[in-house]
Amino acid sequence: MKLIILENYSQASEWAAKYIRNRIVQFGPGPGRFFTLGLPTGLPRDHPESYHSFMWNNFFKHIDISPENVHILDGNAPDLQAECDAFEEKIKATGGIELFVGGIGPDGHIAFNEPGSSLVSRTRVKTLAMDTILANARFFDGDLSKVPTMALTVGVGTVMDAREVLILITGAHKAFALYKAIEDGVNHMWTVSAFQQHPNTVFVCDEDATLELRVKTVKYFKGLMLVHNKLVEPLYSMKEMGAERSQSKKPYSD
């Protein structure tokens, strides 16, 4: 497990963005190798607060990606469980998840796997806790009657199958959750703690999120930053990596 501690939200976000860029370039994605782990809540696709709208406005319209290479759960499917089962099959068919990127709630939930979720759960329909509904009310003008009460979500087991997991945790209100994730034991009431047992997890946080951690824990991981910064420096490019791959495929000559 790696814990990356940066001074503030902006620095943590920049480090994570650079890391994700390098991993994408190294992975060399192409047709059939794009996957978005969507968490829809039954809202129409064109609703301004739907997951489809969020991903389009904040990510897809800024990058070079074809719509057919994006896989998002359909929260309006006639058979929601069948939709979840099909999503799991699609992940398997594409070779599994290379890199899962996510955040957590103040109660330590990952995706919509809220406290009490099974640590071996798969993609499914999940009832949302009141704390989550209250937290999301800000997107609906504070009107609780408009906030979805159920969602489709990948399971903890689904994410644990990913070859690598990157979790972003920022702000003092997430400090206790980070403590549960790093220093306390694995507990289904804090589903993010499951990643203590994942072979390749990277937690990226800011100083505020470390307020509940032991001083020696913070000092230990800060002491590794010279090594961890090599993961984002230098920044790779698709062109350079493509040339490197082509060179490696050339037959040996004397």
TrEMBL record:
The keyword Ribonucleoprotein does not apply. Coiled coil: none annotated. GO terms for molecular function: glucosamine-6-phosphate deaminase activity; identical protein binding; isomerase activity. Its main location: cytoplasm. Homohexamer. PANTHER family: GLUCOSAMINE-6-PHOSPHATE ISOMERASE, GLUCOSAMINE-6-PHOSPHATE ISOMERASE 1. Belongs to the glucosamine/galactosamine-6-phosphate isomerase family. This is Glucosamine-6-phosphate isomerase. It comes from Dicrurus megarhynchus.
